[in-house]
Amino acid sequence: MSAGILYLCATPIGNLEDITIRALRILKEVNLIAAEDTRRTRKLLSYYDIHTSLTSFHRHNYRKKGVYILNLLLKGQNVALVSDAGLPGIADPGEEMVLLAVAYEVPVVPVPGPNAAISALVASGLPAKHFCFEGFLPSRVKARQEKLRQLQTEGRTLVFYEAPHRLPETLADMLVLFKDRKIVIARELTKLHEEIWRGTIAQAVKDFDPV
User: Fold this and answer.
1) 50, 80, 123, 138: which sits with the fewest CB atoms below 10 Å from its CB?
2) What does the H/E/C string look like for the chain?
């Protein structure tokens, strides 16, 4: 028996209309959808009247659930992996599922679509020909500062993900290490209150001060 296919399906990063026709077809046809947050994915599936079986796959259960999904794939079933938003495998446990599938020679098929980092980059006005994506910075202060210190001499545009509640502290660290470099902060992309803020790090520290 040949193995099934692991599809990596990109889902909307905000606006539910931002999903491809191909992704919708695959989500309907697969045997199972593995979702980072089943509640969020159910809203998407309900919006498009999709009734495929759903299971959770997130950072707290990816080891155990990864084996479960792998066994289904090895039995010939097709599985679609989706993240909370965008393309799975970038700054989420999807990467671990891909590594497991590849190790057992299970076909992995990307189904392209929305991506928050690329969407922010192309709208930023910063150089996009060459860039460096760093994902989420460490949450601990010393580790975050050390990571930023390692990037001080990086000449390419740097792209980060950051949680809203940590943004002020991260900006303060950036001001110390990157001085008054240009910065763009994109949030709520594709949503009603989308904002793309442009300025310097010093201006950002003032504008995003929670006090």
Assistant:
1) 138
2) CCCCCEEEECECCCCCCCCCHHHHHHHHHCCEEEECCHHHHHHHHHHCCCCCCEEECCCCCHHHHHHHHHHHHHCCCCEEEECCCECCCCCCCHHHHHHHHHHCCCCEEEECCCCHHHHHHHHHCCCCCCEEEEEECCCCHHHHHHHHHHCCCCCCEEEEECCHHHHHHHHHHHHHHHCCCEEEEEECCCCCCCEEEEEEHHHHHHHCCCC
Ordered domains of the chain (ranges, CATH): 6-111 (3.40.1010.10), 116-207 (3.30.950.10)
| Cβ–Cβ under 8 Å, residues 10 and 112 | yes
Q: Tell me which amino acid residue 2 is.
A: S
| pLDDT tens string 14-40 | 999 999 999 999 999 999 999 999 999
Q: Which residues of 125-152 are buried (b: 16+ CB within 10 A; e: fewer)?
A: ebeeeebebbeebeeeeeebbeebeebe
